[in-house]
Amino acid sequence: MTSNASGTAPKPARPRSPHFPPHNAPRVWFITRGVSPIAIALAKQVLEHGDYVVAGVIPVEFEKSEGQIEDFKAFLEEVKSTERWRERLRVVGLDARIVGQCQAAVAEAVEAFGRIDVLLCAASEGTSSIFESGVELRSDASQLSLEPLKNCPRAVEPSALWTRSSRSTSSPT
Predict the structure, then answer these.
(1) Which residues contact 47 (CB under 8 A, 6 or more apart)?
(2) Among 76, 104, 148, 165, which one is most buried in terms of CB atoms within 10 A?
(3) pLDDT (tens digit per residue) in 50-66
(4) What is d(CA 130, CA 140) in angstroms, rounded to the nearest whole number?
(5) Which residues on neighbouring strands pair with residue 168, listed in sequence order?
(6) Closest to 163 measured CA to CA, from 101, 110, 86
(7) Domains and CATH numbers, the chain
């Protein structure tokens, strides 16, 4: 039996890229807030892996170049220059607070790729300052913030029934 000079075993090397669970065909990822930094990073990994991505973008933000749109536009340029990614990304107009837009975006995703396998509700509503303001605002603030986390999963449910491989996760960022 050999021992390390410091008495502890060396740490294993960290993998360079994520390990995706095995599957038979490319998955379709539906990301509600495609402009968030975590959504962009995830979309790059997913596209590189060979899966499909549907990224929701609030149309008004995109037109006015508000918020994190500049990073998203840089990502779109990267997609354009990467041939294997071009056909695997669909950008849809989506304000997840509006039920009708959720339903339309889901319909567009299903029409484009046939199904939705993974739903990531990447809501980026900030409510911390509202919660600190007063007790009477708390219920309204949580309703406003959590609404996008309910609308899109409800819109995806009917299409998810078509495939047994669907997954859903909500991640307030």
Answers:
(1) 53, 79, 82, 84, 85, 88, 89
(2) 148
(3) 999 999 998 888 787 76
(4) 9
(5) 119
(6) 110
(7) 28-170 (3.40.50.720)
Task: Please choose, from the candidates 18, 52, 36, the residue with its C-alpha nearest in 3D space to the C-alpha of residue 121.
Answer: 36
DSSP string, 38-107: HHHHHHHHHHHHT-EEEEEE-HHHHHHT-TTHHHHHHHHHHHHH-HHHHTTEEEEE--TTSHHHHHHHHH
Q: How many Cβ atoms are within 10 Å of 40's Cβ, its own excluded? A: 19
* Number of other CB atoms surrounding residue 156 within 10 Å: 25
Q: Does 171 score more than 70 pLDDT?
A: no
**Are 54 and 30 a contacting pair, CB within 8 Å?**
yes
Residue 70: what residue type? E
pTM for this predicted structure: 0.69
Whole-number Å distance between alpha carbons of 118 and 160: 9
Nearest-angstrom CA–CA distance, 8 and 150: 47
Give the pLDDT confidence of 5-40 residue by residue, as tens digits: 556 777 777 666 666 667 788 999 999 999 999 999
* Three-state DSSP state, 133: helix
Q: In which residue are the tokens 């979309």 written?
A: 43
